[in-house]
Design a protein that fits this description.
Blueprint (H helix, E strand, L loop, with lengths): L2 E5 L3 H14 L4 E5 L2 H10 L4 E5 L7 H10 L7 E5 L3 H7 L7 E4 L3 H19 L1
Parallel strand pairs: 1-2, 1-3, 3-4, 4-5
């Protein structure tokens, strides 16, 4: 327990988030991908405990990645959709129960939700 895949075309954000997880949640294994097409094979090959997906990406957006992930067997309750959009927009496109969470990746308050998720995974990884 503790494998995280983050898919986001914003390399700076990916770097920041993965560094944060590695520093504060060292038992979690983080893999990142800036190319959503390459991420598809990573989803098939590995057991993923948490999938973080950016909603707006070129070539393949987060909605399509979400659909692919669930069809590949990733539980919808292990998927978090990240976006720069406001909460109303996100909840309109991903109503409650569609996935684990939809978060604005630039709002500081939303970081607390990710921390709760990461903390829970860290405790489970510690056994």
């Amino acid at each position: 327990m503790g494998k995280i895949l983050i898919i986001d075309d914003d390399a700076a954000f990916l770097n920041f988030l993965s560094s944060y997880i590695r520093e504060f949640y060292p038992l979690l294994d983080v893999e990142t991908c800036t190319n959503p097409l390459k991420a598809l094979s990573a989803m098939k090959k590995k057991k993923i405990d948490l999938l973080l997906v950016d909603l707006e990406m070129p070539m393949l957006d987060g909605t399509k990645i979400f659909k692919y992930a669930t069809e590949a067997g990733i539980d919808k309750n292990r998927i978090v959709i990240l976006s720069g959009r406001d909460a109303d927009y996100l909840h309109e496109h991903f109503p409650m129960g569609t996935c684990l969470a939809v978060l604005n990746k630039y709002e500081a308050k939303q970081k607390a939700v990710l921390d709760m998720i990461f903390s829970s995974m860290q405790r489970k990884a510690a056994g």
